[in-house]
Amino acid sequence: MNKKWIAAALAVCLAVGFTACKKSDEGYGVTVIGPEKTSAPSTVQPQTTAAPTATPKPQAGFVVGPVKDIDIVASLADYSAPSQTQLSLEEREQLAFFTQNGKTGVIDLKGNIVIPAEKDVHWCPVCGITNEGETEIYNAKGEVIGSGGHGQFETPIYYDTNTKKLYLENMETLVSWNQEMLNTLEPVIATVVTITPTTQEDANWKGSFLNDESAPVIVGETEGYMLFKPDGTALNNQVYEEIQRASTGTFAVKQNGLWGYVNQETGEEMVKCQYLEALPFNGDRAAVKAENGWGYISLTGRQKTSMDFLGAASAADESTAWVRTAEGWGVVNLSDYPPQAS
């Protein structure tokens, strides 16, 4: 249970991944579900022998769609860069996961289906986009560039309310943060628990140890989450109900059932906890849900659009994003939906 053991394990995992990730020419034909660039939603109707029906009046601001047969799950800008795949931030923010018939694919901001839903892909923090069995890794063009199989590569971190110390979990053994500090330059999210000494004969004991097998402990239920600097000191001493990863220098945090944002350097509140839901910032835009619906705010908390979309994904930049209206999901120019006058 030491740094050398953990480093060796990480090296083996990554070495296996790099060996498997060989370039392949496989890819998919592009399916377009909307116009590449228009000022109104697509009105393309499926081929039929019946008489044509009247198309609905276009909505101003739509670049793609809207369409009803897919649901946008999340922009790939919401995920941290994978450690192994050459998929840049600029490429990721142009892509989004979508679901269709219960499975997940990838679509871009032009309405091109990059990876069909039948591949049922998901995000791996090591490889990026991979299929259900993690036998294939895809690049931003939908090409297969290797095989996966890494799964979620995360180390649980706990803050003990008894000792006021931070611990890493390594194979059910809790090791002091000072002994096994993670190699990170950003604040980390720790689960707040109460750790109490016990015996292996205790019926409530679940196999956890403190430092070694001579010190069995019981790890209590989750009491919340805290942010800690890389040196192990608390960022702001606040316990939150939930915390989402850092983006554009912020963490999204939940207090009293509502979401806001704090500065990842200082821990200071940037946007008051007032939203029902909140997505990570991408640049100077974040999608949030208020009582009337979804909309977009700036890093200062100022509303940049109306707040009445039925759904929203993180903006690709300060002007374009996937949103859901009564007509379905589509890509819009956010400037066409200014904040409503109060």
TrEMBL record:
Q: Which ranges does the record mark as transmembrane?
A: none
May I ask which residue range the UniProt record assigns to the signal sequence? 1-22
Query: Where do the record's region annotations for Disordered lie?
Result: 37-57
In what ranges is there compositional bias, type Low complexity?
40-57
Tree of life domain: Bacteria
| Keyword 4Fe-4S recorded | no
Whether Signal counts among this entry's keywords is yes
Keyword set, alphabetical order: Signal
**One Pfam family from the record:** WG_beta_rep
Protein name, as recorded: WG repeat-containing protein
